[in-house]
Amino acid sequence: MLEAKILSKVIDEKDFFTLRKFNVTEADFAVHKDVFSFIESYVREYSQTPDYRTVVEKFPDFNYMGEVYDAFPYLCKEIKSKSGVRQAYEFLTKELPHIFDSGKNKNFPKELYERAEAIYKASNSVSYAGSNYAVNGDERRKRYEESKERVSEMIVPSPYPGLNEILQLELTDYLLIQAFSNIGKSWLASHFGVHGWLNGFGVLHYSPELSQKQQEARNDTLIGHYDNVKLRTGELDNEAAYFEFLDGFKENETPYIIKTMEHLPDGLTLDVIESDLQQNPNVKIVIIDGFNLMQHGNGKLDRNAMTQTSRKLRQIFGKYKVLGIVVHQVNANEERENKKGKKNDEEIPERVPKPASILGYSETIAVVQDASHILSFDAVDGMGALLLAKTRGTGKDKTVNLNLNFNLGYIKEAVPMSHF
Question: How far apart are the C-alpha atoms of 377 and 355, rounded to whole Å?
């Protein structure tokens, strides 16, 4: 049943390469080894999977099952597990007596342990087999053709045109937004979220420092530009327009899931994030508003535990093919340095936005090392500066200037004077 199900899904989705990714081989099949071998040979020769009718005609005993809804990761894990049980049984009934050799083999305990450990690891492996670049030309061509057709589905636009000119945010990227305290980095993260959502990308937004009411009010302000203070106090001047605005939020296939302090009684953990992504496969953007607010290891702000959290986040974003946006606060020492003026009787210059460096972390540098891209943000009196402090591309150290009015939901790129 399981073997027929996974091979049927391979045929229907024309995706044999996923089995390679999960290290599923002919040895993992007991009933349909011949079917697996035929599909593998067909793909190698013709660069595509065979039609289901071809397979059924060649193998009458193969029970083709259309519309298999189980996910590939689940099916592959199950078949590896069953393969391990089968290998263990064959080992116990066939190989073990020969290894034991009527008690004459002095290395029996060692060989028994090594063989049992190998079977266990093979059946419970959670890592992929990797790719053999020397022979996966067909796989790379398939991926290239898919990229041409799905480029708009893979690139998440930022809210700022100038930033989009120097940075392409892709699904699986780890974007770090850093800033000093009380600058507006949560507003910035929310702006990325609502802009992505309005462009068709499902969002999972963790905001453990705010209440549901506060976060949803921010989203309403960013989208509809309703006065945020009056929105939260129920004193809107344009109340009728707001109610009409809310009527548009009743049916939508693109989710925007918010989890705040009410929804995270035990704190935000890696397990919570991974579970939520498993339950919401249409989510493409994950926002974690406050790396320090996560539960790291034993719950303390331990540097090693935070490093492991950051490493695991990077893996999760890649595994579930989502853009991860992590918000982190630059430490107080660098903030004090940034705000220093002249001493004594010298005139103190007017402070202008000066985004922090990428090294201003007292707890862990892992977030800087793990992030694909880093946006460093600063704001003063309605002026903002967004520095691309790290990127894989060529836009590093370029700055996008912003005009800010958080209370009315306006975060707009400032137009250079040369454009007038």
Answer: 5
Q: What is the mean pLDDT of the chain?
A: 84
Q: 255 — alpha (psi -120 to 50), left (phi > 0) or beta?
A: beta
How far is 409 from 278, CA to CA, in rounded Å? 32
**Which fold does the domain 153-334+347-419 belong to in CATH?**
Rossmann fold (3.40.50)
Q: How far is CA 392 from the centre of its chain?
A: 17
Give Cα separations from 241 to 212, 221, 244 (angstroms): 22, 13, 5
Output the six-digit token pair for 188.
């910035």
Architecture of domain 2-130: Orthogonal Bundle (1.10)
Domain with CATH 1.10.860 in the chain: 2-130
Q: Please write the tens of the pLDDT for every residue from 284-308.
A: 999 999 898 898 876 556 778 888 9
**Tens digits of residue pLDDT in 156-181:** 999 999 999 999 999 999 999 999 88
Specify the domain boundaries for CATH 3.40.50.300 within the chain. Answer: 153-334+347-419
pTM score, whole prediction: 0.67
Measure the CA–CA gap between 153 and 143, rounded to whole angstroms: 14
